[in-house]
Amino acid sequence: xxxxxxxxxxxxxxxxxxxxxxRSIRRYKPHPVPREKIELLIEAARWAPSGENAQPWRFIVIxxxxxxxxxxxxxxxxxxxxxxxxxxAGETEERLKKIRDPKKRQKIMEKLTGGHVSSFLENAPLxxxxxxxxxxxxxxxxxxxxIENILIMAVAAxxxxxxxxxxxxxxxxxxxxxxxxQIPKNFKVLTAISVGYPDESPKPRPRLPRDDLVFYESFxxxxxxx
Length: 226
Known about the structure:
The chain has a single domain (about 25-195), classed as NADH Oxidase, CATH 3.40.109. A 4-stranded antiparallel sheet has the order 1-2-4-3, with helices on both faces. By secondary structure, the protein is of the alpha+beta class. The radius of gyration is 20 Å and the shape is globular. It has helices at about 1-20, 35-45, 65-90, 90-95, 100-115, 140-155, 170-180, and strands spanning about 55-60, 125-135, 160-165, 185-195.
């Protein structure tokens, strides 16, 4: 019994460590992703929960370099439109107001308005396009659960991923993706996930303190107030 409890504790800690070690990876080694690892990611996604067990998701694995570059270019153009609009509206200044170094601010602004945020997709060895049936009410929630399963399993498999919405945020871009991949009209494209062996090791970004996030019985009520 004691050994079972220890094994359970070890498993809990292992799962938590995998979750904590997840990073958004944007630089990849050129090595292809083995088929068995791709199947592992898809299997993890397939077991995600969904409302009424609808399982609305479909996954398109893209390894063709021409298609990957095309998706990356669509993402870059989408970024350029979005961040240029934010800049024109004065929202970029608000976004960067905490950065005091003017050179760093300028560099970030050029990256945003130049469409260089999501164009890294062009260099990913593998992209998984996630789409789902439009007739399912819980589609975005169901597919988000499947996407998160892919991101977590990728860490356990020694891979890196990045969840990228840019290629399909605009309906015009989504139509380009659907035409390229022959996705039926009754399906919605939700995201592109880049996958590969990491060629960078980003530091963990800070998380808000637990006491700022968790309440008991009502919003704002701390456990110590119970």
